[in-house]
Amino acid sequence: MTPLAEQTILVTGATDGLGKAVAASLAGESARLILHGRDDARLEATADELGGTSGNDEIRCYRADFASLDSVRALGDEIARDYDRLDALVNNAGIGTKLPGEGERLESRDGHELRFAVNYLAHYALTRSLLPLIRDSAPARIVNVSSAGQAPIDFDDVMLERHYSGVQAYCQSKLAQVMFTFDLAEELDPSAVTANCLHPATYMPTKIVHAAGVNPASSLEEGRDATLRLVTDPDLDGVSGHYFNGTREEAAHPQAYDEDARRQLRELSERLCFPT
Predict the structure, then answer these.
(1) Known catalytic residue: 243?
(2) Global pTM value
(3) Which CATH number fits domain 4-273: 3.40.50.790, 1.10.10.60, 3.40.50.720, 3.90.180.10?
(4) Which of 5-14, 16-25, 75-84, 94-103 has the lowest mean pLDDT?
(5) DSSP codes of every residue in the chain
(6) Counting C-beta atoms within 10 Å of the first and last residue's C-beta, which end of the chain has fewer, N or C?
């Protein structure tokens, strides 16, 4: 793999929680960092903090609202315009079972169920937009931060208009991330670009966990280290298409291995993210 100090790495959802912890570690290794967030002030504060702590002056900020696919596609266009390489993409941004909405069903600006839109569709659109740049940067890595909480997708009610729960919405969005990871791994040459996903740790002390009223069971550092391993470990060169629980490879939900379900999800994602 390319030395970290020579890599350009994008971390989505980098202004707090796991994303910020991962970005801080990468900043300390002198990587060129692209930080994504949805609030300019928080982005600038994060960049100043990480730069001041690490001495890294190669940190740039990009704002995008992942509840809007137009905003996500614009983000991809900006990064592809501003950079000539992208060595790693860490798809981390997300919302939980209750925050926002206190468990009520919400929709994105495009009219899609919000958790499916933010946790999955936004990262699908961003990854697809950046894939030419990622391929040109080989060897490169795509890391999707998913969850052990995975629920099968009902393709007759993907947007949960008939039967909604925040848990189902969150868990099906996380399974969709896993399914997308497996598709990418089959599509891409692992000697050039790898795609892996993980459940970083169980109930880390993040705002998503606190909002759900759950007591943390793992440290933020555990999740950070598990995620960083997929980004930086040279032993994982050429390793692609795996789901990890922390640092252990495990089986994902059975639907992730259902080729027909993955095809349905892929076709739906293309139709929603890149309408003609």
Answers:
(1) no
(2) 0.95
(3) 3.40.50.720
(4) 94-103
(5) ---GGG-EEEESS-SSHHHHHHHHHHHHTT-EEEEEES-HHHHHHHHHHHHHHH----EEEEE--TT-HHHHHHHHHHHHHH-S---EEEE-----SSTTTTT---B-TTSSBHHHIIIIIHHHHHHHHHHHHHHHT-SEEEEEE--S------TTSTT-SSS--HHHHHHHHHHHHHHHHHHHHHHS-TTTEEEEEEE--SS-SSHHHHHTT----S-HHHHHHHHHHHHH-GGGTT--S-EEETTEEE---GGGG-HHHHHHHHHHHHHHHS--
(6) C
